[in-house]
Amino acid sequence: MTYTSSLPTPTQQDKPQVAPAKVLQKVISEQRSGRITITDSRDPSISWRVYLGGGQMHFAESTMGHAERLPYVLKKQLPDFNLSEPLPNNTSEYSYLCKYWQANNLPLNFFRKLLAILTQEALMQFLALPQGYLEFEPNVGLDPLLLSAPFRQLVLPVRDQINQWAQLQAVIGSPFQKPHLEDPDQFLKLAWKENGQGRHLQNIVNLLEQDLCFYELATQADLDVLTLVTDLAPMVQAGAISLNPYRVIEEQVRPVVACVDDSQTIQQFVKLSLEAEGFEVLQLMDPKQALTVLIEQQPNVILMDIEMPKMDGYELCRMVRQVDMLKEIPVVMLTGREGLIDRMRARMSGCTAYLTKPFNPQELLALVQKLSAEGAAVSQM
């Protein structure tokens, strides 16, 4: 039996705590492929993610705070380029940017440059972290894959900035932290004490009252975020400025989608399509043992292949509908069969919807979001 997430999602403290730079170097040297996520052990509301494979870097991003980070990076590095659409925080940067690239027919070379710039900025923060909680997901990749660059090529141009961020870690751990003015008089006194620093720091006094992170402060004040953090570090040490976390973490339960399919390719496709959009994917590859796990987990939506060894999807769906705890859960049949008789058999077995292979990620996501929302609405009635 092969499946993942059959137990409750572990807390950050249950994950190994590592030095991010060492982990990244090890994965690259072993030419492993996958996705590394590092959560800041001092502020679990902040985490960074790196995609890589075959010794090459594919992309790096924050897992949150896109509406704060991307405007800063774009204004600093590509001032003539503006995102014309609002940037949601509940999706991945890569997914959002790829949709934007396709919708606006951006030149591929320009778009790759944009991805490289964002990757470099994220790597500065990833590599500067002294410790973090590790999650490594082998063979999780990007679709489409548009950037593949040597690690050294991306890191060498920003090596000095990485070292500076690393030196600041003991005082200010992340540009996502939110500085708050505690003592205005002491702040101004310290600002003017540094030769020539007081004037531009005096201009951000009002901004320090607005619950902004360092990225937002730098964007609004038109400053380099590393310069701003370096200038404010003495004020933090002296107590003139306090630091708040990026956000207060509340326990969030991600909707769970169970995928019952003996194809590793389909499992990977479903995982990539749904996890970036906030779903947890429960992978079940043995249909005969899937029912036990489904009862244990009670997912929000069940995706089920029809053609599987040992037990086909029709039979499994009928068994699901006979279990009180599962009978109201939406079941989507995944199949290459398009015939009317096959659809009728699926309906008679109790399935909710029918998705014909091959299907695209947007089609799958839209259906799962619809069924998940409908199920949540029914459960609240």
Continuous helix count: 15
* Lateral strand order in the biggest sheet: 1-5-2-3-4-6
Helix content class: 40-55%
Number of strands: 13
Molecular shape: elongated
Largest β sheet strand count, sense and barrel closure: 6 strands, antiparallel
Q: SS-based structural class?
A: alpha/beta
Unreliable spans: 1-11
Strand content: 15-25%
Rg for CA atoms: 24 Å
Straight-line N-to-C gap: 36 Å
| Overall domain count | 3
- Mean pLDDT figure: 86
Helix-strand sequence: EHEEEHHHEEHHEHHHHEEHEHEHEHEH
Structure commentary:
Residues 1-15 have a biased composition (Polar residues). The structure is a single chain. The chain is of the alpha/beta class and 381 residues long. It folds into three domains: 12-168, no CATH class; 178-244, no CATH class; 256-379, Rossmann fold (3-Layer(aba) Sandwich). It has 15 helices and 13 strands. The chain has helices at residues 20-29, 66-77, 93-104, 108-128, 151-155, 159-168, 184-193, 198-202, 214-221, 225-238, 264-275, 287-297, 313-321, 340-349, 361-379; strands at residues 17-18, 34-40, 47-53, 56-62, 132-138, 149-150, 178-181, 241-244, 256-260, 280-284, 301-305, 331-335, 353-356. The strands form three sheets. It has a six-stranded antiparallel β-sheet with strand order 1-5-2-3-4-6. Helix 11 links the parallel strand 9 and strand 10. Helix 2 runs parallel beside helix 9 (214-221) and helix 6 runs parallel beside helix 10. The protein is elongated.
